[in-house]
Q: What sequence folds into this?
């Protein structure tokens, strides 16, 4: 067990925060030993995956457990599907590349998303018309109170737009240890969202494939999103707000160019990046923090910023967008 450990290299914002105690776990057995150990039983615990969706605003007076449970295992298959069990500590993009390499369809649109397998169900990560709920079969987790292992069906996960039961009702009560995915052997391609089809055309791809779509998504993401190794960021900072059709019609009358995408009946999703850009924040910089010049949805740390400064900036953006458009933005990043 390590004491007073810097977390700067464990979060993609590159923010300084110190963990009172820190331990990396590589197996369920190691995790169970910590939970059952009377020394650590009453201490608050913070589970850290890839650190790609957190904003550290203070030191962590808790036991920080870095999940490093690895492994991708083929459990079963039939003529249509394969079932892969993946450890919570595996990098999400590595898993996607494994699926692309083996021609397993379903996650190619989610290429290059940062973070780990364990964090993915919490957020119900998604991109380009696909969400993780589309391929999850079960999620395995361990109770931080009793060390009991429980398996959640997809329905029990209560997946929503960047939401799950692990993010709300069971927040802080469970540690995700692994996920069982069901992937397709017969691909159904999703190329209608964003610039995927346009990028495939630019790549001279006439017939889509799992690999080609993955490469197109990677090309798009690299052109729009800064590399955390060069500029600290956590990708999309805000969720795309869903508003009522009536509110969208009013917004459209006031701002005719506003884009919108119908979701469930009676609701429309509006791109948060468009709202932020139109409110004048794209490319904004204040000292060592700011809004990315190519993608207004991304807040950045140029090297010496603090989590408190980034949080304050996000609140200014929320206030500005609310005043201009009457639309409330919610953070996708978790404040710690």
A:
């Amino acid at each position: 067990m390590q004491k007073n450990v810097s977390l700067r290299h464990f979060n993609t914002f590159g923010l300084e925060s110190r963990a009172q105690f820190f331990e990396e776990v590589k197996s369920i057995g190691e995790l169970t030993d910590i939970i059952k150990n009377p020394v650590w039983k009453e201490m608050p615990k913070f589970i850290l995956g890839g650190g790609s969706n957190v904003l550290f605003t203070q030191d962590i007076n808790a036991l920080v457990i870095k999940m490093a449970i690895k492994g991708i295992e083929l459990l079963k298959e039939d003529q249509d599907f394969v079932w892969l069990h993946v450890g919570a500590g595996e990098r999400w993009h590595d898993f996607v590349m494994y699926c692309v390499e083996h021609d397993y369809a379903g996650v190619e649109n989610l290429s290059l998303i940062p973070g780990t397998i364990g964090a993915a169900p919490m957020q119900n990560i998604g991109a380009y018309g696909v969400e993780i709920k589309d391929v999850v079969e079960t999620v395995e987790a361990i109770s931080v109170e009793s060390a009991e292992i429980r398996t959640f069906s997809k329905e029990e996960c209560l997946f929503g737009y960047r939401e799950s039961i692990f993010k709300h009702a069971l927040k802080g009560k469970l540690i995700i240890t692994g996920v069982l995915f069901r992937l397709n052997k017969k691909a159904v391609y999703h190329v209608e969202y964003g610039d995927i089809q346009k990028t495939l055309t630019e790549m001279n791809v006439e017939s889509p494939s799992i690999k080609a779509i993955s490469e197109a998504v990677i090309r798009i993401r690299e052109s729009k999103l800064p590399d955390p190794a060069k500029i600290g960021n956590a990708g999309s900072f805000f969720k795309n707000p869903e508003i009522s059709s009536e509110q969208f019609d009013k917004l459209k009358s006031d701002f005719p160019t506003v884009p919108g995408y119908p979701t469930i009946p009676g609701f429309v999703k509006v791109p948060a990046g468009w709202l932020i850009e139109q409110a004048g924040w794209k490319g904004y910089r204040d000292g060592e923090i700011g809004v990315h010049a190519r993608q207004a949805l991304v807040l950045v740390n140029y090297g010496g910023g603090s989590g408190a400064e980034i949080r304050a900036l996000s609140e200014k953006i929320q206030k500005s967008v609310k005043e201009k458009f009457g639309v409330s933005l919610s953070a996708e990043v978790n404040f710690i």
The chain has a mean pLDDT of 88. The longest strand covers residues 174-184. Residues 17 and 59 are 5 Å apart (CA to CA).
